[in-house]
Amino acid sequence: MTVNLTLLVVMGAMLAIGIYLLLERSLTRVLLGIILISNGVNLLILQTAGRSGDSPIVRGEADPESYLDPLPQALLLTAIVIAFALVSFMLALIYRSWVLARQDEVSDDEEDRRVAEASGAYDPEDDAEVSTETSEFIGAVDPNTGTVRTESAPPTGQLPRVNPESAAPGDRAAERQERRGETP
Q: Which chain positions lie within coiled-coil regions (predicted)?
C-alpha cells in the first residue's frame, strides 16, 4: 500500500485547525471546526482504502489482489451523511441563538461560575465579564430601533422602550410596542 504524503499532511492540518476551532466559544467557529474535522476524517478513510483497483464484483479468473475493498467507500458515504446531519443541526442552533439573543457565543452559566469560584479556578482578570456592547458604533443611530446606541445595551432579547408620542414617524420600535399594547 502506497501512502500519499500530501493527503496525510492536509488531513493533519484540517484536524488540527478543526480541533482548535471546536474549542472556541463562537458557534460559527465551532461549526467550521466540525466541518474541517469531518473532512479530515473523510480523507483518513480515503487513505485507508488503499490504492485504486478493479470493481469489487468478482468476475471470472481475476487475481483477488486486484480487487478493491468496498468497505472504506461505504464508511466514507456514511461519514458524509453524518457530517451533513451534524452541520445542519449546528446551523439550526446558530440560527436559533441569533434569533433569541443576537449573538452566537456561548456564555458562562451562573452555576459554572459559582463552581469555579468555590473550587478556586476563577481568575478575576481572565474570567471577568466583558460588556455586551464593544462596537465602534456607540453613539450612532441603530437603523432597526431608531435609538442612539449607548454603552449600556438593553438586556438580551429586549428592545429599548420608546415613547410613541415622541417617536419619529415610521419608527418601527414604537409601532411594534403600540401593536402589542405596551406603554413606555
A: none
Q: Which of 82, 3, 2 lies closest to 41, judged by CA? A: 82
Report residue 80 as a C-alpha cell. 458524509
pLDDT in tens, 84-117: 999 999 999 889 888 887 877 777 777 877 887 7
Distance CA 145, CA 142 (A): 6
The pLDDT of residue 155 is 47
Distance between first and last Cα of the chain = 74
- The CATH number covering residue 11 comes to 1.10.287
Burial of 178 (0-12, 13-18, 19+ CB in 10 A): middle
Sign of CA dihedral 161, 167, 171, 176: positive
Helices (runs of H) and strands (runs of E) counted in the chain: 6, 0
Per mean pLDDT, which range of 17-26, 36-45, 108-117 is the poorest?
Answer: 108-117
Task: Count how many domains the chain has.
Answer: 2
Q: Measure the CA angle with vertex 136, ends 132 and 139; round to 5°.
A: 90
